[in-house]
């Protein structure tokens, strides 16, 4: 009785809604039937269609979106019992009803058909009890009617303002049902596949993404049912620490958490406390809150009471983080639950699992509180092994756990000084038996190299510092500079002369060897050898001239007893260009020269290169 009353109420509500929608869409229907109507009225009217509201891209005005959509739509008219499309066909359009009703028909299962056939055989002459006028009209169609049995049954019906045939367009699958007209006449607007995709491209992409998430949440439920169910969900943002409900409150919604965390907990009775006798001065610790479960991304919360029709909340619920969720209010849930039996079953299973977990956890927590309480009560008061408050309860740990602030549980990092101290301690511990001498590496050669390197570094840095100074009044460093320069210069000249000597020697050797084997040379080779030799001697002459010039300059400069930094710099560059003084770069070159000097065969080639550079 109660149920039939509810059904009547629901039917009344639907009829009312249908009438309202028909009235709102009447201007649109008039526009298509009689073009004299104003476009603005058409747009205003179409703006009431939920499908267009849902698909309007973010950041776009609904009005503009509807204007665009209106360009694509086409009016179509169907009469009673007309099949709009068949189950399993390719889907080329989707429809929005302006006036009238359609029925969604899906094939019956094989078992159902066989059952009906056997029943019919028993009754024989009796007619089938359930009559479907629409199907009866199509009894000549063997797809729908065979051997006195209807092969399809109606699962849903749509009225004005609602849309159908969109699933095949978004999923690129065949029609999931047949659509047959139920009313005398049915007016609808259709949008073809290509236009639909153009219009709703963004919305389809978003829808597919959300669908993936929902398919994980509603595991095993058909895409169609999920999409219908989630149409009743609304987004909500919840602030961290906000209380969603308390034990005993009336259940008002269920939530699906998308991002963030909420916590189900209970407050223990005032009578449940722990007494600690070990610390002088009696005190009690009241354990107020026991967390029962934390709900995170992709999980339900608050469904238990709605599913089981419990009038009061069983636990408290609080947000831990800032949380994004979707919610469905209790009223809507009650209304639609019958349409989604598979989703309700899934929710029931989830609820049973959660209940088992929560009960298990609660019993364990209460048991451990009791065990601790008993232990304290039994322990004799012994002043000698008195523990501190924190040692006894590890209250610091407890307070961390209960704190509303999330703390890292990673080990604490050392500060720099703590880390150094620790390393020194370890080192001292490790080598405590060794004398300091044991730890020094006694390698004179290495020590000398280190010393030389340091001296060299010191010199370079010192020089840099001096160059960087704007005024060089420091006579001491300047004279040092000159001294160093002279020293370097004399060393380099020695090396240079040595290398020149080497080159001459090697030239001589080369030349002699060439003379010896001259008979074996071709005329071209002989000519090239002559060229090389003349070029080589030219290069030598140039270098000797440069050296002389430099020696004169330096003599002049040193007799003047001072040398400006600028002069020195230019001198350095001159010398470097000539490759005669050992600087960082020239030293390298010199080394490579010496290397080649040793190889008699490669000498002519090297000289040729030198020549090119000069
Ligand atoms: N169970 C159902 N309840 C309501 N509408 C449905 C159901 N199954 C299919 N439909 C609609 O019927 C249409 C059949 O073609 P489509 O698969 O393109 O899109 C489908 C939906 O719009």
TrEMBL record:
InterPro entries: cAMP-dep_PK_reg_su-like, cNMP-bd_dom. It holds the Pfam family cNMP_binding. GO terms for molecular function: cAMP binding; cAMP-dependent protein kinase inhibitor activity; protein kinase A catalytic subunit binding. GO terms for cellular component: cAMP-dependent protein kinase complex; cytosol. It comes from Paramecium sonneborni. Residues 73-217, 217-336 form the Cyclic nucleotide-binding domain. This is Cyclic nucleotide-binding domain-containing protein. Transmembrane segments: none annotated. CDD domains: CAP_ED.
């Amino acid at each position: 009785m109660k149920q039939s009353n509810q059904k009547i109420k629901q039917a009344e509500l639907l009829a009312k809604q249908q009438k309202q929608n028909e009235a709102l869409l009447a201007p649109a229907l008039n526009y298509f039937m009689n073009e004299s109507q104003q476009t603005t009225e058409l747009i205003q009217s179409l703006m009431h269609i939920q499908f267009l509201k849902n698909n309007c891209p973010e950041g776009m005005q609904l009005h503009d979106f509807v204007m665009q959509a209106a360009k694509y739509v086409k009016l179509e008219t169907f009469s009673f019992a007309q099949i709009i499309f068949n189950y399993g066909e390719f889907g080329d359009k989707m429809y929005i009803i302006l006036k009238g009703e359609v029925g969604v028909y899906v094939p019956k299962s094989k078992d159902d058909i066989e059952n009906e056939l056997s029943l019919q055989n028993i009754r024989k002459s009796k007619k089938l009890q359930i009559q479907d006028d629409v199907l009866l009209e199509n009894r000549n169609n063997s797809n729908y009617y065979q051997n006195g049995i209807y092969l399809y049954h109606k699962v849903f019906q749509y009225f004005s303002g609602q849309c159908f045939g969109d699933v095949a367009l978004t999923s690129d699958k065949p029609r999931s049902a047949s659509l047959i007209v139920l009313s005398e006449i049915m007016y609808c607007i259709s949008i073809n596949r290509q236009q639909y995709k153009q219009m709703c491209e963004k919305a389809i992409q978003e829808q597919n993404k959300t669908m993936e998430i929902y398919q994980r949440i509603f595991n095993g439920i058909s895409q169609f049912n999920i999409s219908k169910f989630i149409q009743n969900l609304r987004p909500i943002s919840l602030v961290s620490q906000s209380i969603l409900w308390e034990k005993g409150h009336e259940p008002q919604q269920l939530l699906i958490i998308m991002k963030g965390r909420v916590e189900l907990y209970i407050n223990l009775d005032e009578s449940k406390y722990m007494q600690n006798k070990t610390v002088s001065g009696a005190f009690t610790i009241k354990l107020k809150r026991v967390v029962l479960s934390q709900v995170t991304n992709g999980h339900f919360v608050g469904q238990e009471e709605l599913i089981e029709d419990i009038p009061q909340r069983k636990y408290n619920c609080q947000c831990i983080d800032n949380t994004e969720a979707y919610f469905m209010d209790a009223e809507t849930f009650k209304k639609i639950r019958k349409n989604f039996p598979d989703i309700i079953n899934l929710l029931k299973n989830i609820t049973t699992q959660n209940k088992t977990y929560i009960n298990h956890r609660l019993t364990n927590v209460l048991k451990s509180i009791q065990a601790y309480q008993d232990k304290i009560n039994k322990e004799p008061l012994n002043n000698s092994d008195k523990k501190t408050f924190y040692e006894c309860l590890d209250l610091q740990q407890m307070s961390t756990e209960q704190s509303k602030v999330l703390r890292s549980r990673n080990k604490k990092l050392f500060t720099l000084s703590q880390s150094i101290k620790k390393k020194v301690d370890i080192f001292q511990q490790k080598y405590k038996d060794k004398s300091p001498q044991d730890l020094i590496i006694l390698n004179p050669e290495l020590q000398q190299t280190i010393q030389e390197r340091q001296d060299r570094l010191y010199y370079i840095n010192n020089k840099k510092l001096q160059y960087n100074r704007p005024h060089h009044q420091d006579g001491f460093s300047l004279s040092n500079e000159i001294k160093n320069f002279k020293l370097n210069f004399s060393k380099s000249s020695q090396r240079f002369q040595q290398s020149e000597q080497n080159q001459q020697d090697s030239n001589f050797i080369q030349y002699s060897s060439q003379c010896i084997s001259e008979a074996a040379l071709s005329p071209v080779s002989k000519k090239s050898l002559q060229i090389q030799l003349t070029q080589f001697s030219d290069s030598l002459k140039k270098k000797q001239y440069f050296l002389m010039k430099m020696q004169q300059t330096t003599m002049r400069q040193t007799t003047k007893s001072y040398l400006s930094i600028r002069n020195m710099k230019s001198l350095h560059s001159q010398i470097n260009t000539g490759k005669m003084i050992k600087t960082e770069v020239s030293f390298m070159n010199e080394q490579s020269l010496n290397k080649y000097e040793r190889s008699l065969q490669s000498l002519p080639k090297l000289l040729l290169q030198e020549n090119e550079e000069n």
